[in-house]
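Can't paste images in this forum, so I'm doing it all in text. The chain is below; anyone willing to post the predicted structure tokens underneath?
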Amino acid sequence: MLIKTDKKDLRMKALNDRKFLPASLQQRYSHAIFDRLQAFPVYTQAKEVMVYLDFKNEVSTDRIVKDLIKRNQHVYIPVTVSENCMIIPSLIKDKKDLNVCDFGMLETPVEKASSVHNSCIDLIIVPGLVFDVTGNRIGFGKGYYDNYLESLGRKVTTIALAYDFQVKESIPSESHDFKMDYIVTPSRIITAP
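Text version of the structure:
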């Protein structure tokens, strides 16, 4: 008998698995993902990159941000606007200017966000909780990234970062869910069909 798993169950299991991931493994997996990115032309050739700042045991993006800045690429971080579940990309200048937002992650305060015209961003590095091999993504359930990607009105390359245990063969998806172009894990790069 086939047991159907819904997004809520998958989300809760992923949060629990990630919560109990030892710090040493989180660091090792994040380094392996970073090494894969550095050899991936989609990443190395991008000029304007939006990247999330990790929290709650997500794949670490600190080395990614430092690498992008070192290579003189423009780096934007998402500023969340909870009233309408939207994201404003903000150019990152110095991490010490960041504050902890309502969700417990670092971001530029909305009033200090130096928003950018969305047309210049050519790569978005996206967080998530569960993915599948066809590029489907389950996030925290508020739709911030789906809303933002829809608001762009154009195709932008997306790379999701995930631990291997976060990638399933198939997950539920809906018509408003945006698929990822690539998923980078410690062991592989998945190209969505």
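The chain has a mean pLDDT of 87. Helices lie at 7-19, 23-38, 41-44, 62-70, 144-152.
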